[in-house]
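Possible race condition, two jobs.
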Amino acid sequence: MSKFNITSARPAVTSPITGEHTPSGVTHQGGAGYARNTKSELFLLAVTNMVGENTFYEPGGKRDERYAQLVGQAALTDPAWTARFLRWLRAEANLRTASLVGAAEFVHARLTTDQPSDQGPSNRSVIDSVLLRADEPGELLAYWTSVHGRNVPKPVKRGIADAVRRLYDERALLKWDSAARGFRMGDVIDLVHPNSDTPAQGELYKHALDKRHNRANPIPESLALLRARAKLTAVPISGRRGLLHADNATEVLREAGMTWESLAGWLQGPLDARAWEAIIPTMGYMALLRNLRNFDEAGVSDGVAEGVAARLADPVQVARSSQLPMRFLSAHRAAPSLRWGHALDKALTASLANVPTLDGRTLILVDTSSSMDSGFSKDGTLKRWDAAAVFGIALGGRCRNAEVVSFSSAHTYLNEPPGPKTKPFAMRKGESLLRSVDRWKSDGYFLGGGTDTPGAIAKHLRPRFHNRLVIITDEQAAGGDVNAVVPDTMPLYTWNLAGYQHGHAPSGSGNRHTFGGLTDAGFRMIPLLEAGRSENWPF
């Protein structure tokens, strides 16, 4: 009788997030906890960590300390991998603060251990690689001096100087130079002494220093944008709104490098409909997304709103914007008008382009325990269970046959018998994703309580019926061992949304794989792994 040459045989595959095969620790709720290797723990923490923000189980300071330690360990053991990761984290994952902090800790670890400079990429190049916006040189300096002191090493200065040459121009000076910042552009120039690529850039540096030191030198002739802004600033406040009614108002604002924030300051008052309509053509994608409520409250015309909606819904612009999927849900909840709904739904769907179409039958368990109520946006309006619901419903909608179930544990906070608390979600064919997420929220699918993952699996998984199990969670299961209740032959895919130290199952080989983050990128691995293709890091 054949033991290996059978129809269910599959090629052995691996995925990048790996850890131990038997649990050596516990989760925060006392379940079996599987430790991961340094790279895997670092990756999951980085792609879920909003630096300085608390989570349910881990204070922000402790998470940041763990992150710095992991970056330091990875920088010493595999500097080339770590450098690629930090660049990807900024350029593709669009997680700005985590990448800046990571680059600083990368360099700090290598300098304090005297690692030979010829091992891996230069410290200078790593600093330069994560600085992609003109306010970021000052941001990195502020982090370094607040954590490691005012003695800034040469590789950090030189990496920042390289970035300054790429990033500092007239528009950047107008947008990002402010007395409200600890390191103004002039301070950065004073400290790192960047070279200039052109005579005009050299004059820009001198002007930034003049601004910083309150010197009343005239703006050089070569800086046309700054001179145009100065001309607008010289217009008396009483006459400024009248200029917005001219046919060329948008072009005048564009030539002066005016943003919507600076326009409000120039007008010395709120933006009315005419002001918004004049500045909207110059606004970037993210600025449009965050101001939909303001457009409605000001009474922006339907014609202008249609143009905004078309830009928001354009898949090319969605991809170029690198917005997290949750930003579209946040905009949807903030905007009172229905005129944005279809565009935001199309944008959200486009931002989830990596969510695959899966054949067979898929069970999707969405963790909505109280720990998933942790916020990951600065204002606390976006929760980890919001992200879990978006990803779970999006995946369910793409599957040929899917059951989507919200789960927690009834007995932790409620006077109910021990066991899982679950609520199956009825998928409706043709329903928009935003409408489904609204229904999830309004119909009580955010359950609260503990995290009885093993109980939810035992209650809903039918091994002879389902082809795979996907769990979207922070992995902090209570009691028992998640891995033990899932048959070895059943593929278990865990989507991690919090990045705690211990996971709830093995990962990296066989039928056990973990992905993570606040974007959809990892979901594309599922069909590839099932097709017998091993997957590596996304960078």
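Job #2 (started ~2 s after job #1):
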Amino acid sequence: MVSPIAGSDASERGSALDQLAARAGFEPEWSDAEGNTRHVREATLRVLLERLGLPAGNASEIEGSMATLDAEMYGRELPPLLTAEVDCEVSLPVTVARTGFNYRIELESGPVLDGRFGSPEREAVQLPPIAEAGYHVLVIDGCRTTLAVAPRRCYTVQDAWNASHCDGSKAAAPPVWGVAAQVYGLRRNGDGGIGDFSALTTLAVEIARRGGHALAISPMHAMFSAEPQKVSPYAPSSRLFLNVAHIDPAAVRGAGAASAAIDVVNAAEKTAALEALPLIDWAQAMSAKLAVLRALFESFSQETDPQLLHDFASFVARGGRALEDHACFESLHAARLAAWGEGHWRDWPVELRNPRSDAVAAYAEGNRRDVDFHLFMQWLASKGLTEAQRAAREAGMAIGLVADLAVGCDSAGSHAWSYRDQMLTGVSVGAPPDLFNQAGQSWGLTTFSPRAMRTQGFSAFIDMLRASFAYAGGIRIDHILGLRRLWLVPEGASAQDGAYLRYPLEDMLRLIALESWRHRAIVIGEDLGTVPPGFTGQLQNHGLLGIRVLWFERADGGAGFKAPSDWDHDVTATTTTHDLPTVSGWWQGEDIHWRARIGQTAAREDGSDPVAVAMEERAADRGHLWQAFQDAGVASGDSAAPSLKSPPVDEALAFVAATPAPLVIFPLEDLLGLTDQPNLPGSTDEHPNWRRRLDATVVDLFLDDSFSNRLRVIDCARSGSKPDPSRTESR
């Protein structure tokens, strides 16, 4: 493919173009990993502006696009949504609120506040502070808008602790802990080869019984039923709905109905074979599961239980237009892919690219049974995830499930199709060149247009937040730096030929805080990487927890590791993440060998073996880490560092448990001492990303003394109690 920006001359800058780009939110300059100032190519800006709906091919187009932005930003009409914080004055531009205008605030709870604007002392007039959080209605001179007034901060771990203790005490919450799990990798007898919501429910209950208060899970976003080879949970079809791969067919209609469905499609032998595999065969497992679920759906047509029938009908009614769109997309996508090989909706006939078209309505009517099947699967998935959270809370967790919100979605998916007017088109989210990836990254994902956010009242963003909070006691926002700015690359261009686009951070943080309280759920922001100055403080001010990972918590100078007491307080602490090596893998250098194995290791200018050099550097790091363990008292002060074959997993867990973080999350991979990480960034089929399964079933995990003892020691370390030595095994 020819790059859409090929042949541009980066040496000639157009000041009018730069001004338009800056007004639209693009940053014409950026700093690379070495601190050098880099200029975005002029042709890149023109392409990106055009794809934001702001043509900039010549002076006339630039002038017209500037006028469009002026009208949007400084017009005389109220925007469809304004954000504010409780007990703070609300500034309004004088173009929409003038001296002498009457205003009315219709509070969500019912009361009405009337007033009149006085003389402004600056270019804005002020609404008086509003003490009640909520989505209120503001009326000025007959014009109405939504006024979203947010709490000062998100719902916190302390709030969750207080709510879970019904004695009314407001005692400080102890430092709590939880576990992180890749749901697809969980095992349960009868799961068909993919981890499901029933296994998740069991895991949540067992962790709660051992003192854990949170279970962070891999993204549950809807994938592509017709393309099961698309397996990354961070590149979903939609962030509004759920992954049907995790449905347990027996969970809602019972084991008898599920067994009958398996018999109808003759899948018993196949599913048993899939369950025995060490890695998930997504294509085969999804084919079998969909066949079973379709047979289950056919038998559901004979259902006589009025409660179940009412529950399904109510679910569909609540889902409304968005749910119908997703189900229609799933059906239509499968049909177009099978008949024409059209995997991307932009390749469909024009009349099918718009979910509101007569052609799409005709398709849904003519294929009602198939569309209903996808509604049925979303209902089953919803009930399964709801049950997991209910069971977690009833078993004693203060927080329960922590859902993972991906930074974007596949541009070929249902979310982009259904919300095409609010999504970026023709661009990919990615990352600029850095020390680890000198070519930059283009992830093939899309997300919301910040311009459309403002002009359409943040409706798509709010819908996504509500979908994420719906089934959990918390959410983890992947790459939360993207709330401030995202690196966008024109489709077909090199990842280096991108630019940063700023987002309305303060508005989004307020909406996150508002929805956090409405759902009584904590918020964690994955703020790893190059964090802009002041960004961490903004997150903390709004009550979001950042993330701190053992491998990155280095002492001044970068050689040694920080003592646990020196870690940040307002964060979630963890040993590792799904994209990083496990404790065992890091200690043994398995990540280094994997990168060399798949061609991610660059040759060195001095001709030395890059793997040998990396392993030497890792050996030095192992020494520094072991020293940190000894200094912290989690390892014997007079013992030598363990060998490569005996990674200090217990010491690493104890070290992170000793940090002051209000919440510590331990990945199952580290609790089990596993070597392999779930995902190796920059790889696809070269590494078994998103395919690894645990060796034991969830039930059997808790019968293992080593695993159970680790949980016991962690619980004692976080609660301040002493473990029973007779029940604790040494490494």
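Residues 15-70 form one domain.
Logs attached separately.
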